[in-house]
Write a structure and sequence with these properties.
The complex is a heterodimer of chains A (215) and B (120). By secondary structure, chain A is mainly α. Chain A contains six helices and five strands; from the N terminus they run E-E-E-H-E-E-H-H-H-H-H. Chain A is flat and about 50 Å long. Chain B has a five-stranded parallel beta sheet with strand order 2-1-3-4-5, sandwiched between helices. Classes of the chains: A mainly alpha (215), B alpha/beta (120).
């Protein structure tokens, strides 16, 4: 299953900070403009997807690749066209866009997990997540030794990846890197707080998915 | 049925790997390197799936200990890691692992294929 989102339109570059948790590919060199602040070219994964409006003609070819990836159309007037919703006249609040993306990422990951086991497996995984992840986040918050912070964040990163909690995963990855640096970067502690906030925001999608499983 | 040892301290990772391998292999699970080293000399596995970030001893230290233990020295071992950094594969192979699978597991066939190749 595709794990990308496509931003289309002349204002797409301004949206990159909002979709930073979503990995993707730059599709043309113009994507490397200063506002986009992308780190790579079309050959490699970058922090987010960016497309020029001319690429709209490519969309029929892109869609089979993207499969379930939502396409956010941003028209020349700056209106946002979110999947399944009426046009939004201005850029939606970042929470709204993040929520849409994060919910989609969780559902995408659940499609993968469903291949590995039936409902009882999913139910056990969810229940474990709801118990284990908050405990690990607390362990990271309570830790005073940077190496302990790094270990806790590594564990959370790994678990978050299992459930498609991409924002949590990304923040923990960065926090682990900072806590493991020589000397350790105290900013790692801020990322622990950010990871907890991201977990509290996204866990609602997992809770909703858990509620759909019988038993 | 071939016997696999899974050394993994993260319970959801363990549950996920067990779900993928259940019914295809006889599984023993360990949550630390020390526990695994003690258990695997009693019941030697045909293959080991070894997490890299373990308490007390990390995966590379566990592998080094296995390679100095006659019963475990030649047991094929796959590194499981959430690091997923460029160059990881080469680094883990250089450390003596027989293969490497990154987490989260996206495609069960990558794991199953690596196991089948090494058990051949």
């Amino acid at each position: 299953m595709s794990d990308r989102i496509f931003l289309v339109g002349p204002m797409a570059t301004t949206c990159l900070p909002l979709v930073a948790p979503v990995p993707g590919f730059a599709w043309q060199a113009e994507a490397l403009s200063a506002p986009a602040a992308l780190a790579g070219l079309a050959a490699g994964p970058v922090e987010a997807v960016i497309l020029d409006p001319s690429v709209a003609v490519w969309l029929p070819q892109i869609r089979p690749v993207a499969r379930k990836a939502p396409i956010v159309q941003i028209d020349p007037a700056g209106r946002w066209h979110l999947p399944g919703q009426p046009p939004v006249p201005v850029a939606p609040p970042s929470e709204m866009l993040l929520g849409m993306l994060e919910g989609w990422l969780v559902e995408t990951r659940l499609d993968v997990l469903r291949r590995f086991g039936a409902d009882d497996f999913l139910r056990d995984m969810f229940d474990l997540c709801f118990e284990y992840l908050p405990a690990q986040l607390q362990r990271a918050a309570d830790a005073t030794d940077p190496s302990e912070i790094a270990k806790a964040l590594h564990t959370i990163k790994s678990s978050a990846g299992n459930f498609g909690l991409r924002a949590v995963q990304r923040l923990c990855d960065e926090g682990e890197r900072l806590a493991s640096a020589t000397p350790p970067d105290p900013a790692a502690r801020t990322l622990v707080v950010d990871a907890r906030t991201a977990y509290e925001r996204t866990v609602t999608y997992l809770q909703a998915a858990r509620a759909r499983i019988t038993g | 049925m071939k016997h696999l040892a899974i050394v993994e301290d993260n319970p959801d990772n363990l549950m996920l790997v067990e779900a993928i391998l259940d019914g295809q292999y006889d599984l023993s699970t360990y949550s630390s390197g020390r526990e695994a080293l003690a258990g695997m000399v009693v019941r030697v596995p045909d293959l080991v799936l070894l997490d890299m970030s373990l308490p007390e001893m990390d995966g590379i230290q566990v592998l080094q200990a296995m390679r100095t233990e006659a019963l475990l020295a030649s047991v094929p071992t796959i590194a499981l890691t959430a690091h997923a950094m460029t160059g990881d594969r080469a680094r883990f192979l250089a450390a003596g692992f027989d293969d490497y699978v990154s987490k989260p597991i996206e495609d069960e066939e990558l794991l199953l294929g690596a196991i089948r190749r090494l058990l051949r």
